[in-house]
Design brief:
Elements: H1 2-5, E1 12-17, E2 20-25, E3 28-29, E4 33-38, E5 46-52, E6 56-60, E7 66-69, E8 73-75, E9 79-80, E10 87-93, E11 103-111, E12 119-130, E13 138-141, E14 144-148, E15 163-167, E16 170-173, H2 179-187, E17 191-194, E18 197-200, E19 207-210, E20 215-218, E21 221-224, H3 238-251, E22 272-273, H4 277-284, E23 338-344, E24 367-370, E25 387-389, E26 398-399, E27 403-405
Parallel strand pairs: 3-12, 23-26
Antiparallel strand pairs: 1-2, 4-10, 5-8, 5-9, 5-11, 6-7, 11-12, 13-16, 14-15, 16-27, 17-18, 18-19, 20-21, 22-27, 23-24, 24-25
Amino acid sequence: MKNLIATLLFAATAFAAAHGQTLHIAPMYAGGTATFEVHNGSPGTTAIIGYSLHGSGPFTLANGLILNLSAPFNRLSPFSLDALGNGMLGPFPMPSSAVVGMRVWFQGVQVDMLANPIYSVTNMVPMTVQSPSTPPGMVAIPGGTFEMGNHGGGNWPDEQPVHSVTLDAFYMDTYEVSNTQFVDFLNASNVSVTGSDVYQVGGAGKLILNLSHGINYSSGIFSFDAGKDHQPAAYLTWYGATLYCNYISTVNGRALCYDAITFACDFTADGFRLPTEAEWEYASRGGDHNPYYDFPWGSDSYIGSEVNGLFSNYDRTIDVGSYAPNGYGLYDMAGNVGEWCNDWYDSGYYAISPTASPTGPAGGSERVLRGGGFQAPPPYLRCSSRQSYYPTRNFNNIGFRVAAVQ
């Protein structure tokens, strides 16, 4: 147990929500420290994080508790939750024995002696140890070849033909960009506010955001509504998403990917940008290529407990990461908010798409949106589903996440 603690870096968060407790783990890096956090558990109870190096279960303990971990498995030291149901274990130092690429499976258990049953478990979460060079808050997605498009049938002509695509390795945000992150960008940028609309000052003067969903403006300062700090930023345009990418590139000392006038993307720059449509679909599949599943949770079936979609427990956006991640450790690749991609949309593009790192058509009128949102019915939550909107479009279920070259 202690040896593995010393080889992993991750932060874990368990939520007691309507869909059950959920274990959240940030990307694991070689070097650094390991910290575990539990929020919204039962006050005064005990939390335990277990792990296995041998994949998923199930495995039944002597007390009847069923874990989704394979034996042999170990557990970390129990830690107590406070009066608010929150607790933390760590941080622990990590030596050089943390091997990049190591695969580990985790599950959390809450022990409540006053409840029946006493034990309750979170979902099982697989994670991979990342390189120290992985940018904070991102996951390293390995390069590879996959068959892009709809493998599940149905009348979706813009998802055909299924075609082979080879991608270089890239980084992608673990979570959708939150209100907190987008507010930081707005407060650090040269923008103007007209009514409820926020515009770029300089460059092409594009519309960035409509102040209608969790972000507000008063006395020259942008802020977020109480309780919405960790919800995904929404009502933002494609232009707003790209300008955010330029902002975090500047903050991190990286070359800008976007021209602030033409909004052309320099794919050779080491800065941050929106993922290409091919990168997004490849990442959403979480490494599941044999077989190719319809949904990011590794199934051809819609499962309401896996996603904040039309038939889930919510009719609004919720905190990023409230559901289990996919095989690459990416959260909310379906539902919550649809996500802008860099590409122009062309319904017939798959017939002419390059096989190596396609970046979409040279032009168009609409940009690609992927992943559906909290109002999306199941067919629009599939990995291969394609939607498109004008880049000035903003709505309460449109957001984004960021990518970068490795």
